[in-house]
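Notebook, bench 3.
Goal today: get a predicted structure for Transglycosylase SLT domain-containing protein from Bacteroides reticulotermitis so we can plan the truncation constructs. The sequence was checked against the plasmid map this morning, with no discrepancies at the termini. Length recorded as 326 residues. Pasting the sequence as submitted so the record is complete.
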Amino acid sequence: MKKLNRFNYILTLILAVCIGATIPMLIGSTQIHEPHTVKSEVPYCVAPPTVPLEVVFDGEKVDLRRYDRRERMDREMMAFTYMHSTTMLLVKRANRFFPVVEPILKANGIPDDFKYLMVIESSLNTIARSPSGAAGLWQFMPATGREFGLEVNDNVDERYHIEKATVAACKYFKQAYAKYGDWISVSAAYNAGQGRITSQLDKQLADHTMDLWLVEETSRYMFRLLAAKEVLSNPQRYGFLLKSEDLYPPIPCKDITVTTPISSLDEYAQQQGINYAQLRDMNPWLREHTLQNNSGKTYVLSIPTQEGMNYDPKKTVAYNKEWVTD
C-alpha cells in the first residue's frame, strides 16, 4: 500500500512538471508579439469615433464640451459610423442629389448645411414615406406640403418632386428663421413643429433650442443633423473608402412639357423609348398610371436618355472629392 502511494506521488510529481513546462509554450504560441496590438477575442476591433470639441452649422459654432451635448453627439456619430451599409448608401446617393439641391438652397438664401437635414429626413430615398404619411426627400406631411405650394393628391404628389419639394422646404425654413433667428432652432422646428419649440423655449426659460428637454426624437434630431454633416463631409475619416465608380452618377434626362392629360403613362413611356418603371423612377411625383390634368396645368416630365441609363464607371465623377480615395 505504501509502495502504491509512493508510486502515485511520483506520478503526480512528473505530471505537474510536464504541465508546468507545457503551459508557457502554449501561451507563447498564441500571443501576438506585434507592438500596440489590441488584445481581442474576435478578428476585428471596434473603436468609437472622436467627438470634436465643437462643430459649425452655418457659421454658428456649437460647443460640444458640456457632458450632455458631448454624449448626445457621441451617440449619433457612432450610429452613422457603424450603420455601415446605410451610411455608405448615403454617400453614394449624395453624389446624385446634392448637385440638384445645393443650387436651390443657395438661390433661396438657405444655408448649404440644410442638405444634411434632407439626409436625416429621408436617407436620400426619393420615394420615402413614413408611417405617419410624410413623404419624399423632405418628408412633408400632406397639409404642410399644400401650405407651401405643393400639389398633393392621389394622381400627382409633388412632395416626391425633388426640385419643387426643395423650394417648398426653403419657404418653411425662411418662415421659421424669421421667428427664431437661428438655424438650429429652425431644424428642430422642422421636426417637432414651430408651436412646440416656441412653447418649450418659453416654458423651460431656455436661451437655445439645444438646451431644451424634448421628446427623444427631437432631442436626437439636432445632433443627428450635426453628425450627418460631420461624417458625410469626410467619410474616409470614419472608415468609408469609396472610389468614384462606387458613387451614383446623376442620370442625364431630357425635359418634356405636358399640358394635356395622358391616359396611359405605360404607353407614353414606351413612346419615349423607356418603360413605366423608369418613367416613375425619374418622376416619382406621378402616382398612378395616368396623368389626369383636366385643368390643363403645365407639368415637366424628365425622360432619361439612353446613354444616361447605361452605367459607365469611367464617366462617374465625384461631386465632392472628399468622398473618394482616388
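Confidence is low (pLDDT under 50) at residues 19-33. The chain has twelve helices and four strands.
Flagging this for group meeting.
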